[in-house]
Specification:
binds pyridoxal-5'-phosphate, transferase, transaminase activity, D-amino Acid Aminotransferase, Chain A, domain 2, alpha+beta, 9-stranded mixed β-sheet, D-amino acid aminotransferase, Aminotransferase-like, 2 domains, D-amino Acid Aminotransferase, Chain A, domain 1
Length: 288
């Protein structure tokens, strides 16, 4: 498994960072996970744009342009496909503020950001094949994270705790809602529902990540189907009475949720619209 760390390609086991790296001490960094199917990165440009946006928000400034990031992704795909990890990879990219001489909250001047990347085997999802029929069960929980969930931060403690809450309850994931009962997202995915033929998802704001898979799905629906789409606040109750619920992410693709808090979603099977859209999503050639 070949990784990249601060300008060098090396076996992942040999990659070392300083314990004074602020990514380690403060969780001060941003990251991306980009799916690469059969050697081709999917939606690379929007992923890199989101990474650059996150770096701007944190005032981290490595002197890297879009092409440098693209080259890094392509090299990780090539080196790890050669090493035969898998032909379907998740490319993980990570930038943290870098190592300081001491632990002090303020942003230090002139640090060299830490840039790290590696590849892992991507679990099977509809991105690989339209025949993957995995479904998910979820719990619901009040969203106890922070007010900047639109930044893809490496500080994932809130997400990890919510994900674990789902696992501890014997479910796959946790769908989160704020104190008003509005759904935000899941702990590692965006949320969609279908009601009477309309596809609905919560609008982008600071309480959820602008998911790239979410964007791709909305793009396909709007440009290639007549299916009505709404981006609007979603009440938890609407999820419980939805015809279909889906989670989207770069590692899950678009996956149906068939149980919420132990109760079936509609018939408790992957829904009709998902069955129709799944091959369309799989075959679509994204031009970004
Ligand atoms: N929301 C959260 C909290 C996530 O961690 C993720 C992905 O890991 C997503 C949404 C989905 O984003 P994307 O489709 O860009 O993978």
């Amino acid at each position: 498994n070949i990784a990249f760390l601060n300008g060098e390609y090396l076996p992942l086991e040999q990659a070392r960072i300083s314990p004074l790296d602020r990514g380690f001490l403060f969780g001060e960094g941003v990251y991306e996970v980009i799916p690469a199917i059969q050697g081709r990165a999917i939606a690379l440009v929007p992923h890199i744009h989101r990474l650059l946006q996150g770096m701007r928000a944190l005032e981290i400034k490595p002197a890297w342009a879009m092409d440098d990031w693209r080259n890094l992704c392509e090299a990780l795909i090539e080196k790890n496909t050669d090493a035969s990890i898998s032909s379907n990879l998740g490319i993980y990219l990570h930038v943290s503020r870098g190592a300081d001489k001491r632990r002090f909250h303020a942003y230090p001047e002139g640090l060299q950001p830490t840039i790290f990347g590696f590849a892992f085997e991507l679990q099977e999802s509809c991105l690989h094949s339209p025949d993957i029929k995995k479904t998910l069960s979820v719990i619901t929980a009040e969203d106890l994270r922070w007010q900047r969930c639109h930044i893809k931060s490496t500080s994932l403690l809130g997400n990890v705790m919510h994900f674990q809450q789902g696992q501890a309850a014997g479910s796959d994931e946790a769908i989160l809602h704020n104190a008003n009962g509005n759904v935000t997202e899941a702990s590692a995915a965006n949320v969609f529902l279908v009601k009477d033929g309309t596809v609905i998802t919560p609008p982008l704001e600071q309480q959820l990540l602008p998911g790239i898979t979410r964007m791709m799905l909305l793009d396909i629906l709007r440009r290639h189907t007549e299916i009505p789409v709404e981006e609007r606040p979603v009440q938890l109750q609407e999820l419980r009475s939805a015809d279909e619920v889906w989670l989207t992410s770069s590692t899950k693709g678009v996956t149906p949720v068939t149980r919420i808090d132990g109760e079936p979603v509609a018939s408790g099977e992957a829904g009709e619209l998902w069955q129709r859209l799944n091959p369309v999503f799989h075959q679509h050639k994204f031009d970004y």
